[in-house]
Write a structure and sequence with these properties.
The complex is a heterodimer. By secondary structure, chain A is mainly alpha-helical. Chain A is 70% helix and 0% strand. Classes of the chains: A mainly alpha, B little secondary structure. The A-B interface holds A 5, 9, 12, 50, 54, 56-57, 60, 63-64, 67, 122, 164, 167, 171, 175-178, 180, 183 and B 1-4, 6-10. Chain A: It is found in: Endoplasmic reticulum membrane.
Amino acid sequence: MNIFRLAGDMTHLFSVLVLLLKIHTIKSCAGISLKTQELYAIVFATRYLDIFTNYISLYNTIMKLIFLGSSFSIVWYMRRHKIVRRSYDKDQDTFRHYFLMLPCLILALIINEKFTFREVMWTFSLYLEAVAILPQLVLLQRTRNIDNLTGQYVFLLGAYRAFYILNWIYRYFTEEHFVHWITWISGLVQTLLYADFFYYYFQSWKNNVKLELPA
Amino acid sequence: KVIVNIHDEL
């Protein structure tokens, strides 16, 4: 474990806590894409298949349980909770996210580190996570009214993978044979997808104006 | 040589 990875995990944790806080306290999910949340639930489900078979550390197991629990409960809130579901904007959240899954699965079957079920599922989750934010970014462009919590949620979600890139650089220089091109490229693509959001988020913060994404 | 795997990450 290194400081970059810890910072990344904490940032990721805060992103889900901010989202859960928003949904739980104001009982609203306005501006949140259910599609992105469903993709994230699938990402965690396919990445943590070995949560009970491959014990790494207490920290690792607890964090996996938190990410699994939070992503599925957010999907539950947005689908089932009688108050929250009313604020879900399904007419705007129309990204065909299932179309994202097939290319990720095919790519995972072709490009992976080891052709085993668990490794292919893990690689699938990596590719899927890289594109999981797309429905959310599309929704933000459409609805344009980005409330603070949603803006913070997307910002933290993008920042966590940027910390992970620093973690991979650190591990590359400090651990022998730590070479994982698939993870690195996928993580880089994921972070780049947030680039324009980061730009507008920073501009709005610098000029102290409400966050607006261009149409 | 211990091949470090990436699966110790979240």
